[in-house]
Design goal:
Elements (H helix, E strand, L loop, with lengths): L1 E3 L16 H5 L12 E6 L17 E4 L24 H10 L3 E7 L1 H4 L5 H14 L4 E5 L15 H9 L8 E4 L2 H10 L3 E3 L5 H12 L2
Parallel strand pairs: 1-2, 2-5, 3-4, 3-6, 4-5, 6-7
Length: 214
């Protein structure tokens, strides 16, 4: 698995942004089908450089909020001991990949700005997510709400960052979140947003694919 970690333009006490690239490059990074994965893990805030769009066919995206959708929201989850996938979350991610979607996570992480955990801790947990499930990218906003960063949902900068990094078919893309701000971000970005509360995320995704196509 090759991971792109973009540089940060905001000062936070953490190692350089490429501090884990060497480690990840030394991992096998090979899918069961023998293909190498390329994933992105970076801030989705304005001023953060992206990368060249990948070659290949244009694909739609499923944008997942993180806390309350992919994992049970225990409040400012940043450590492995607090992580708990929601019911059938990994199955849902694999289903969306089989359907031809880019799987992209967009998550507000104000716990960093509130000094409840570090950006390094978030990156470590995010890398665990990337190893556990075939996620293509994770974009996060580390800022406190008072900083009014446009990446923080209902702002759309994380979605815009994904659009810049990937060749996406937005006419078939949609977002799944658990808060009104998630749905507002989707609406501002011009894609459908569906509100998940509980139950099988796999079944919810199957229904969302059908609803998004009608």
């Amino acid at each position: 698995m090759q991971t792109f970690l973009a540089s940060s333009s905001t000062r936070i006490d953490r190692p350089p942004a490429d501090w884990r690239n060497e480690k990840l490059a030394n991992e096998s990074g090979v899918t069961p089908q023998g293909r190498r994965r390329f994933v992105i893990l970076r801030r989705g805030c304005p001023g953060i450089a992206g990368r060249a769009k990948p070659r290949g066919p244009q694909k739609p995206a499923i944008f997942f909020d993180r806390d309350g959708v992919l994992n049970v929201d225990h409040g400012y989850v940043a450590k492995m001991r607090d992580w708990e996938w929601t019911p059938e979350a990994i199955r849902a991610i694999r289903y969306m990949k089989r359907k031809g979607y880019r799987v992209i996570v967009v998550t507000n992480q104000s716990g960093i700005g509130r000094e409840l955990y570090t950006e390094e801790e978030l990156l470590v947990l995010s890398e665990f997510m990337l190893r556990e499930a075939p996620i293509d990218a994770i974009y996060y906003c580390p800022h406190h709400p008072d900083e009014r960063c446009p990446a923080r949902k209902p702002g759309t900068s994380m979605l815009e960052a994904a659009k810049a990094d990937w060749d996406l078919d937005l006419t078939r893309s949609f977002l799944i979140g658990d808060r009104d701000t998630d749905i507002q971000a989707a609406e501002r970005f011009g894609i459908p947003g569906f509100s998940y509360r509980d139950g099988s995320l796999y079944q919810f995704c199957k229904d969302a694919v059908r609803r998004a196509s009608t």
